Amino acid sequence: MALIVHKYGGTSMGSTERIRNVAKRVAKWARAGHQIVVVPSAMSGETNRLLGLAKELAPAKPGDAYSRELDMLASTGEQASSALLAIALQSEGQPSVSYAGWQVAIKTNSAFTKARIESIDDARVMGDLNAGKVVIITGFQGVDDNGNITTLGRGGSDTSAVAVAAALKADECLIYTDVDGVYTTDPRVVPEARRLQTVSFEEMLEMASMGSKVLQIRSVEFAGKYKVPMRVLSSFTPWDIDINEEAASGTLITFEEDEQMEQAVVSGIAFNRDEAKISVLGVPDKPGIAYQILGAVADANIEVDVIIQNLSKDGKTDFSFTVHRNDYAKTIDLLKEKVLPALGAAEVAGDAKICKVSIVGIGMRSHVGVASKMFRSLSEEGINIQMISTSEIKTSVVIDEKYMELAVRALHKAFDLDQA
Ligand code: ADP
Ligand code: ASP
Ligand code: MG
Fold first, then answer.
1. 249 and 104, same structural domain?
2. Do 167 and 274 have their domain in common?
3. N or C terminus: fewer CB in 10 A for the chain?
4. What is the 210 CA–ligand 1 centroid distance (Å)?
5. How confident is the model at residue 310 (pLDDT cuts 50, 70, 90)?
6. CA separation for the pair 90, 96 (Å, rounded)
7. Which residue's alpha carbon is nearest to atom 8 within ligand 2?
8. Which residue's CA is minimally distant from atom 5 of ligand 2?
9. pLDDT at 65
10. Given CA atoms 217, 246, 128, 228 in this order, what sign does their dihedral have?
């Protein structure tokens, strides 16, 4: 007998028929003698629908007074799908109980719309599991110290599932979704993308942070911190396939580097359209410039990603960086109002139509020429690189958004990821 956490995403929970299918699959696992906790997402489209209603009343701005209410609102999507799943399980003859995040005390901080989990009380859940029930816990949400409902950021049910698995010391966390694992890149963009049987935790972390939305980055961070065995697999296989076959399917996130020895230098390609580029032009080239610009941005709680500073010419330089697209207008205003006058810089320019494409692989540690191969491949497609950033196991470039798919396809081919 094992304790296993199942997470089902929005598409997997997308209709009563699909919920019925999830219930049959979960009941199969329970009948096999396992203790099962299920963390569902809201039915697909529901979170967008709810947030869209709020937007009709008032456009959302992070940090707004009503972000508390946005969480109150968005959390209802998961509450509904969890209750529906419990009903479906009970109708299959499988004892089951559903809980909202606050009822099993998934405690978070108070950062509404992007809260972080601080603790989970496992007593109530363990009691139900030991009484033979399947326990369903809403994904995406928690409760702060003042009893306010919080949510964990878009895609946050992945993080709920891994956090619950860590708290319960589960044997495995199975992330059921609408693809049958983690691919070399998004299979919706590159049909030739291949499923990886295993991916190292470090690579998964880079891929998620570089934009692969198959897993929310915080879920991967949690899995790494608490060494939660984690697998991404399909909820669209027939529910009654052999349980051992199902348990070995998909992509396993591994913590052992040795298992990766056979793998290619580049394991995956990630892309992200959520960023925008900002340049401060004609900045006097003297100590403290980066601090004056980025300090002001950080003080406004805006996260900065890729940064470059040009060589100076006649004592002046240009300074560019990227921010989340949602923070673009706010950052430009801030720089114009507060930073330009104090800095004596000439101008602020921006471009919201950019994207970031990254190649990721732990093999990059021990191979030279990987980045140059990336640059050659992009130049052969006539794609201009605007910014570059690297870490030990990834190289990212910022390019014009209109070339994103072309770049991803070209790189996928150049690094032989099309080949089995
Ligand atoms: P869920 O609702 O189950 O959480 P998501 O839409 O959040 O599902 O994540 C699954 C989607 O992630 C896939 O449908 C796929 O388009 C996308 N995706 C992006 N990058 C990858 C990748 N490298 N491997 C697999 N899927 C990816
Ligand atoms: N329902 C939430 C969202 O759409 C959380 C999730 O699906 O993981 O972002
Ligand atoms: Mg998701």
1. yes
2. no
3. C
4. 13
5. confident
6. 6
7. 155
8. 155
9. 73
10. negative
Backbone angles phi, psi at 335, to 5 degrees: -65, -45
Q: Which of 222, 256, 290 is the last residue of a domain?
A: 256
**Structural domain for 59, as ranges:** 3-256
Q: Which atom of ligand 2 is nearest to the CA of 140?
A: 5
Counting ligands in written order, the one closest to the CA of 45 is: 2
Cα–Cα distance list, 7 to 12, 153, 355 (Å): 10, 16, 30
Output the CA 279–ligand 1 centroid distance in Å: 32
CA dihedral sign, ordered 213, 214, 220, 222:
positive
Same domain, 65 and 111: yes
DSSP state of 313: B
Query: What's the gap in Å between 212 CA and the centre of ligand 3?
Result: 10
| Number of residues that this document lists for the chain | 420
What residues have CB less than 8 Å from 182, skipping those under 6 apart? 195, 196, 199, 204, 207, 212, 214, 215, 232, 251, 253, 268
CB 285 less than 6 A from any atom of ligand 1: no
Return the CA Rg of the chain: 23
Provide the percentage of residues in the chain whose pLDDT is more than 90: 85
Binding residues: 7-10, 47, 78, 177-178, 183, 188, 213-214
Q: What are phi and psi of 287, to 5 degrees?
A: -60, 145
In 186-274, where do the E strands start and end?
198-200, 230-234, 251-254, 268-272
Residue 399, H or E segment: strand 394-400
In this structure, what CATH number is given to the domain that contains residue 417? 3.30.2130.10
Q: Whose CA is nearest to atom 4 of ligand 2?
A: 47
Residue 177 Cβ < 6 Å to ligand 1: yes
**Same-domain pairing of 330 and 246:** no
In 3-state terms, what secondary structure has residue 182?
Answer: coil
CA 11 to mean position of chain CA atoms: 16
109 DSSP 8-state letter: -
The answer on 132 and 13 residing in a single domain is yes
Banded pLDDT at 60 (limits 50, 70, 90): low
**Statement to judge: residues 251 and 265 lie in one domain:** no
Q: What is the chain's mean pLDDT, rounded?
A: 94
For the CA of 177, the nearest ligand: 1
pLDDT at 342: 84
229: tokens are 């065995």
283 and 241 in a common domain: no
